[in-house]
Write a structure and sequence with these properties.
Layout lengths: L2 H5 L1 H6 L50 H62 L2 H11 L1
């Protein structure tokens, strides 16, 4: 079926995608609340640029006050964005060091507990069986 027919509840009520007009013949049905612009190939709504700015280059007076103010604001925004990225990078590196240290500490703890377990198992194996039966009897 058509992606548009899947999204439109009124078109689903009609019952089949075959009764739904092709998306290219009617990009905007009167009963559809969707904005003009139609659907993308993925079946999602696409917003068309609603303002007057288009892809064509406007002639910009680089000496105008407005241009200089816009450039300065943009430069500040770029600087701020780069500083934030650097700060995130520093924080990430600190976290990596912290987690690496924790991992090493935990590995050593696992090794220590493994050695303790082996020692206790060795001691346990050396106990005579009769003392084990007595110990088990007193637990119940």
């Amino acid at each position: 079926g058509l992606p548009h027919a899947r999204l439109c509840t009124q078109c689903q009520a009609v019952g089949s995608a075959a009764q739904h007009p092709p998306a290219h013949s009617l990009p905007h049905h009167p009963h559809h609340p969707h904005p003009p612009g139609g659907l993308s190939a993925a079946g999602t709504l696409k917003m068309m640029p609603s303002d007057h700015r288009s892809k064509s280059k406007k002639t910009v007076d680089k000496n105008s006050n407005e241009y200089r103010v816009r450039r300065e604001r943009n430069n500040i925004a770029v600087r701020k964005s780069r500083d934030k990225a650097k700060q995130r990078n520093v924080e990430t590196q600190q976290k990596v060091l912290e987690l690496t240290t924790d991992n090493e500490r935990l590995r050593k703890r696992v090794e220590q507990l493994t050695r303790e377990l082996e020692t206790l198992r060795g001691i346990f194996r050396q106990l005579p069986e009769s003392s084990l039966v007595k110990a088990m009897g007193s637990c119940a």
